[in-house]
Description:
Layout: E1 15-20, H1 27-33, H2 35-41, E2 45-50, E3 54-55, H3 57-62, E4 69-70, H4 93-107, E5 112-116, H5 118-131, E6 141-145, E7 167-172, H6 180-187, E8 194-198, H7 208-219
Parallel strand pairs: 1-2, 1-5, 5-6, 6-7, 7-8
Antiparallel strand pairs: 3-4
Amino acid sequence: MSAPTARSGSCTQVLRILALHGYWQNEHSFWERTGSLRKNLKNRAEIVMISAPLTIPELAADGQREDPRGWWFSDPEKSTFNAMDETKLCAGLEESLDTVAKAFSELGPFNGILGFSQGAAFVAMLCALKQGGDPRFQFDFAILVAGFKSRASEHAHFYKGPITVPSLHVFGETDRVIPGEMSQDLATHFVNPVLLTHPGGHYIPVCAAQKKVYFPFLDSFRK
């Protein structure tokens, strides 16, 4: 699908976007990984990052990653997550919802919300909650990079109805962490999603081809 057409005339508004990192990351590591994105969007958007509330015990113990965080655990007993896990029960989602609600209350307002990998899967859930009238989450659009549907049965209700929140779905053709088919499947639950593929893997692309989609999408929400 093509990206929205930017509004005519000059746009002066700088959008505020809340960004949710992927599993194993935190706001600081995600900030470092998104330098190119932030640089290219600086005249269009201010990106505000927060850390997930859940510490990953196994990764924290080995000392190989600094303060690894996650938005929910697909294996509550081991406190781990795998996007491929098909499970009945998960843990930690309510804590994460409270964390994001607090960010909206204390750091907002936000025009949009961006998520990467597990963060993108979480953003889809936030869109479903917004769709259902949850007053905690007020935003105009969502950007989901390498997103996917949770395979937990207790999360199935997030995907029951079509989501009308304007959305941009970005995924890599050679992503071995979250295959593009999983991101495409998630996008089918949104009404008129904008799809942006790139030839790379599990990261947020910011080349000329992607900017041709990012810019018009964001400009359609600027005043």
